[in-house]
Amino acid sequence: METKFETIEGKSIQFYLLVLGLALLIVPGLYSTYRMYDEGIYLSGMTNRIPWGLQIILCVFYIGASAGSLVISSLYGIFGKKEYKPFARIAVYLALLFLIAALLSILTDLGRLDNLKASASHFNFLSMLSINPFLYNTYILICIVYLWAMLQEKEKFVRVIALVAVIWAVLVHSGTGAIFGFVPRELYQSALLPPSFIAAALSSGTALMILVILAVFRVTRRPLDHELVVRLGRLLAVFIVVVLYFLFVENAYRLYLEQSREAAMYFLFDPFNGTLFWGGLVIVGCIIPAVVLFNPATGKSIPWIICASILTVFGVLCERYLIVIPGQTHPPDLFPNMEIVKSVVDEGAVHYTATIHEVFQAVGVLAIVGFCFVLGLRFLKLMPTEARIHK
Amino acid sequence: MDRREFLKTGGILSAGTVCASTLPLLPICASKTASVEESSDGCKYGMVIDLRKCKADCTACIEACRKENNVALHGNKRWDVHLIRKVTVQRVYPVRAKEQKSVPLLCNQCDEPPCAQACPVQATYKRPDGIVIVDQHRCIGCRYCMIACPYNARYFNYKEADDWPNKDQPRSMHGVPESCNFCAHRLDRGEKPACVEACEKSGAGAIVVGNLNDPGSEVSRLIVNNSVKGIREDLGTKPKVYYIGL
Question: Which fold has domain B41-244?
Fold first, then answer.
């Protein structure tokens, strides 16, 4: 039986309230962004030692989520698994929105938005931040064409564009990893960052897709075969193990080598970083969800899968924080074998706290994603009438 | 999907990924042509700071720099801009020394500047004379240069400065990073950088700026005749600020 797609009705009072609520959440973000544009980004919690803050953490998270959604759609688009066709359109649409969210996060964070035209006229082939926007913009275009092809039911073209999209997603992820990995900072510099970025993207993207699918099917009261969600859960479990593996290799390497041991100790055992790493990322974000999903008893129960997905998303958020922030707060060793005893600036380890303005911006960007997602469901034929496994 | 089809799709997928993964190599091929042409016989500026002459409690260079370049001082550690900052260091290994040294830190004008490599719009670039400079009217304020600089020598104008002491130089504006550029505007006029001038006036004469390509210049002679050290030369950035007595 062919899967049929339709728009949601969107006539209920709840629908309008949701749209209105999301639109209202964007307003404080616009206000904060305007003030930062006008007065300077001192309104954020960033400092001369920590020039990248919350927006960059979230940007990286969104990019990961985007690729993860795309992989779900590719299960149908490339591998022809018909049972995942009902999710394919939502997945591509979300991939598109998450990438736009990532770009918006960067834009709200720029010091001189008015000079942005320079990024179109002056390109630096050597800069990862120049190569990546090119990758992102192309990726957005590919997603739009992909979505269009699916809406037009052009099955053969979907196969081709899905392949292009997945290859491009690999590039987007390697590129994003390289923004951090290819920088001479002790906790950034790493050739493993690009591939481990892809692993974290797959796990967070799949987890988010599970949550979104369950939510939209429940809210719009459509039949959903739970076996499909269970299979996605199993996929998620595998991705989580890959994430753990990369974490282990990277940190074991840093701890083992004398030259990076001090930095690794700071990363793993500083009270705050250590709590986030061991508590947030390893135990809550990876081990618990993996155990839940691999266990035959809990791995087939929808509430448990929801729980595992939420924990995975939380874990990846911790991981994104740990990629962006400790590399900055950890002091560079400017004078080997010497100690800086006095300076006019903070030369030692520093701390980052986001301000309310950054939170406003972050909520605003997320609200834009939600707003566009809900309107997309209303005006584009994204939702299947049902999702079942046909035997 | 049968096994043959699966293998075929998988094959195309992996082949495509491999091809696409070579894309990031393009910039490396392009880099040879993209960098600014340098002539070995032209001028290449460098600096030597003689720590034996630098007095711990003297801040003449810092103050002169602030006045000359309109460097913002808000009285808040988070936002204050320091194109030169003095730090006091003490040896702790292999022996714990009692002696403390005062070291002025500034942009190292690296010959392989990671900041210029990182800048997405080429707003930070290396001039043919080796000076690393920011075009504040092109900079988009992404701060990737600050992430890339291993010396924390870049400072961001988080806030607009209230005062504007030197009207000949642009007022510092918020949203762009700054670092020392050896007072390129003064060197271009044939004058010495403000810090060098102030240091000489104070009687110390610890800072010297000059042409590294000229073997007869004072910097060249100081480098040849003394044991000099750049900061973290092991990073491969080829800093062009050298210290005597570090």
Answer: Alpha-Beta Plaits (3.30.70)
